């Protein structure tokens, strides 16, 4: 569809009319990064890069008259219209068509008083008003004129007659009072029940504190301080009295709901809507110290194609100490979610020990078109498409509500929509994916714990288990080999209505309609994925998570005791660090060069093994338990070294020989990959290699004598 309702900023769709280089074209095809344009009266289309098209001076999406289309689509309805509302909208639509054309829908001749050649619009308005009045509907001719103009502005869409005025229930009560009432009632959602009298007194206290200056005006005081009877009526009108009378569980559930509207996930192009959620993997794994731990899986599912955009498995370890002050525990964190988003922007690399059917070249993906648009597909990639999320639906867990995750989504131009708490139906595709990975992957992996504790096998912890890194690779191979290439009952295409499609087949059908444009993560964006910290620079260096970082770079020495100019952070400098690779950090120069400076942990060379922020926290806990100081960095380094020495022993004989590679998250593909060695892993039998025939070339005299101990005599000089 083209037109005002189809155009959104930054997007050009099939069928749109565009103005490019002062010539009007129609978009007839989108293939990869290229767009085919056909001018009026031309026979051959023009092929142009999408980026060159939209960035050209004077570019605009235009209507049939050549006027630029404003990027203001028809607002969506808050809820689906009811049957009665649809019936009324259709009835008004028939009247508007007759006013506009003189002919009712389904008829071929105009009725008396509506002939376009004999009557004007004003006469038809008056005639229609009389006709409706006779039917018992009082509508003036002026109102009919306004309705027709509104209908025309909406491109003759009958849904424009479905009224969606927000029902505040506050009548003429000041909105500030309603807001305070709602705030006070919701603050009691998770506590024991209270009556309306207590709410009234608390609302009065809040208003007197918040609007102290406004209450000095008698008129404002009359608007803000309601009579008790009016307050109770407003509580009933707004539904707050009903909320207050509900059970504690019902009140807590209602208070957790995000802002409206609630609507099901519908998408028509890859990446338009992506659902992200976290769930237990139900597979026991080996931790960094070869102990038995649990694991969590987080993944992103594209709604349009049902494709798995990314998957990440992290260890789950219960910390020690009281709730809120536990040390050493971990699960899925906000930084893990940012790494998951980064995987959505890069192809999944195929590994040499994977099945050949997991290659993109052996799948239904349109590999030739993808290679033409994105050079990264020229390498060996797995059969998982690259889908850039535009909108993500997430729950309200603490990692998802972090400011860092919101900042990363804002940087990547991703809109966030929150699902309701304890409402799995808001993310139905994710719930189905978790069941699929349990049935088709987890139960076939060593360490499967079953669907419940009562069904768990005996001696799971004593059997062979995989490290987290191995489970991650196995899950990625399963996604490319099985999930992406298995038909889903809910995937059907209008082009092949009788066939159920796999996610890769569905993506192959949607890609030519929506196009594909590469969007790799840049080096600057990859640094923004790291966890932020704001530090003060001294002659010792900077301190991040109780670690001192220093650099010999002259730029850092110039920043000692300087002010960054960031007033919201007390003039501290911005720094970024990776909790999975904390041996280095990055400091931003706000004063002189506006560049990043790489700084190193001052005791980096004492830690020769791979270590993470979790190892540092474990070492800190050990030092504190032994009576040491938590800021004694050298003692913590020694504790981390002792922890790594203990990895060679393991907790039991059966797990002593396991690989001691700590979990360090996923790598962000932000820079070109290293060149591939074509002879890697190839063994050559030297005895089976025969010498290549020598060429008939004349020899040269050697001015040096043969080495000592060589019995061969020097060749005679050539006297010819």
UniProtKB/TrEMBL annotation:
Bias type Pro residues, positions: 703-720
Region (Disordered) location: 693-720
Upper lineage: Bacteria, Bacillati, Actinomycetota, Actinomycetes, Kitasatosporales
Name under which the protein is recorded: Transposase
Coiled-coil intervals, chain numbering: none
InterPro entries in UniProt: Integrase_cat-core, RNaseH-like_sf, RNaseH_sf
Domain annotation Integrase catalytic: ranges: 318-511
Top-level lineage group: Bacteria
